[in-house]
Amino acid sequence: MTSLPRRSAPASRLVVGLAVAAVVAQLLVLYWPVVTVEGPVSWTDKVVHLLVFAVPTYAVGRALGSVRTAVVVFAIHAPVSELVQHFLLPGRSGDVWDAVLDLVGVALGAVALVVGARLRRW
């Protein structure tokens, strides 16, 4: 993995604010007691799981300037969130495929970080 170049202070505050917002949104989506996802297709929930990990991984990686730290934190959080949903939240259930898509989201966020850093250097 690679470290990302640091930005100026004003841009960093914006990036940190967006990272905090992404993590708060993730926590709300994952730990809200009862969730009914309605969409045009049956895989809407799976897309939400992918995005709810890809976006925070990217945002936190940018804010910290570290792909590795973001990947480790969210790769651990993915299966933990499913276990919490299954055992501790009434009306929710853990799903192995949700955890798999969470990890795919982490990988996509990491790829976006690395590609973005290389494009900025280029």
List keywords for this structure.
122 residues; mainly alpha; 4 helices; 75% helix
**Unreliable residue stretches:** none
Q: Provide the structure class.
A: mainly alpha
The biggest beta sheet, please? none
Shape: elongated
Average of the residue pLDDT scores: 88
Rounded to an integer, what's the Rg over CA atoms? 15 Å
- Share of residues in helices: over 70%
The SSE string, one letter per element, is: HHHH
Distance between the termini: 18 Å
The percentage of residues in β strands lies in: under 5%
Q: Say how many strands there are.
A: 0
Number of helices: 4
Describe the structure.
The chain is mostly helical and 122 residues long. Helices cover 75% and strands 0% of the residues. It is built from four helices and no strands. Helix 2 (44-64) crosses helix 4 (96-121). The radius of gyration is 15 Å and the shape is elongated. It starts with 8 loop residues before the first helix and ends with a helix. The mean pLDDT is 88.
Annotate the secondary structure layout:
Elements: H1 9-31, H2 44-64, H3 67-88, H4 96-121
Helix pairs in contact: 1-2, 2-3, 2-4, 3-4
